[in-house]
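Reopening this one. Same input as before:
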Amino acid sequence: MRRVAVINQKGGVGKTTTVCNLGVALAARRKKVLTIDLDPQAHLTLHFGAEPGTDRPSVYDVLVRGTPLDDATLKIRKNVWLVPSHTRLAGAEAELVSAVGRDVLLRDAIVDARRKYDFVMIDCPPSLGVLTLNGLAAANEVIIPLQAHFLGLQGMSKLLETITLVQRRINSDLQVGGVVLCMFEAGTKLAGEVVDDLRRFLEEARGTNVPWAQARLFDAVIRRNIKLAECPSYGLSIFDYEPHCNGALDYARLAVEVLGVADESTETEPARSADAPASAMRIDAQGSQDSSIANIA
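Same output, byte for byte:
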């Protein structure tokens, strides 16, 4: 079972969008996917069309009250389940301050779950408190959604420091699986510079003992697409809302890379549209080779 924490300390970079749509794309390839909403804002819960703040058990009950994970799990669609969030989760950190093993509560709940999954995908909040530590302690893999901006690179360096500390002190299995560029605008000088810096940084880590030594910059990028912004308001994934748009195509391609399988068509992977040339499907790193962006290291 692959347990994937999708995390970035910066908000609005595509974490929730990635958990929802990558999860659905994996499910279309016959993988059983559990998604967990660890964010008190409950955006993943809303994205899937569930109503946060109801009387049904949520991830709050799992962490604070010891409710079994199975009792808090909702089936969203074929092969996709959700552990919803709740507004009470915002106060969970204070409630757990004296709890024994408070950083591994989610990990233990996943281990004890009766239903088994191929993927557990955790939508972490944009902060580094107890909730995020629970997500990192429960995961064996991290995917970092990133915008191709200078400040995004700076924030990523701080995030990698946190992942290193968690790996050393709490979860020795934790590794960074990769970085996915979201809201990507190919052809700009800045995007090219960021891609160059990221590739250089990840290559320099090869053969070292840091958690990102085997991380990759995914070839599939998530292009800026208005349909991806619209679908959460309807409580739908991009594949249910507009299955032939660029956003659906990009997440289907990302699922192929995450699985490491040949690029075969599925019911959620539409044929390439006439206005989406092949060159747009991959990272365009034709920016300046003399990057003005500081190295992450």
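So the earlier flakiness isn't reproducible anymore. For the record, Residues 2-280 form a domain with the Rossmann fold fold (CATH 3.40.50.300).
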